[in-house]
Please model this.
Amino acid sequence: MDKKALLPLFLLLLLFISVQAQHAKRIEIGLQLGPNYTFLRGNKAVNQVKGEARIAGGAYLRYAVGKVFLRTAFLYENKSNKQEEVSLSYDADGNVVGETPYSLRQEFHYLTVPALLEVPLPLKGFHVLAGPYFSFLLGQDITAHGESLEYTSFYRRIDTGLSGGVSYYKPISAFFNLKAELRHNLGLLNINKDQEESAAVRTNATNLLLGVGYSF
Model:
């Protein structure tokens, strides 16, 4: 074949691949990041502690199956709570002579992998999503007075629960989407190695994730 004819054929092949990709995009990969509001529940002590805003982020994968989508992700989640305490100072006679307020923060660092079904709503771009998630505990620490102590060994490495929420996708080109998602993760397992219900600790996290995805 004449080499001069190869260039037009090559360009036609690229055009064909581009057109097919625009009309048959089934896979989307992307990055997402945002704040999350977390709190712990399970026993009287943790139930009385307020939640805290932290951060979550990572990569996601979305696969079209007909009119619905299968979703997963590798998501870092910081789940924590924070309580305000007071440290008392005493004189030589044992009398209280001062009070020093301080914050005590308990943080759980998780790698979370959800398995979600995403269904489009009549309102264009919006979807509802639901499914289980699985989390691996990367580490746990407690911070107070500017010092941090690790207590990872006191907790189970694996957590699982249910996710549900709403997502929105906005195409900005033939291949790229902007994404916004509000999702709650409800932990079902007692993550404390002490499996007595009076010592139970379960996780909750509401994530607001903003991201960008590439479809092909």
Remarks:
- The helical segments are 3-23, 44-47.
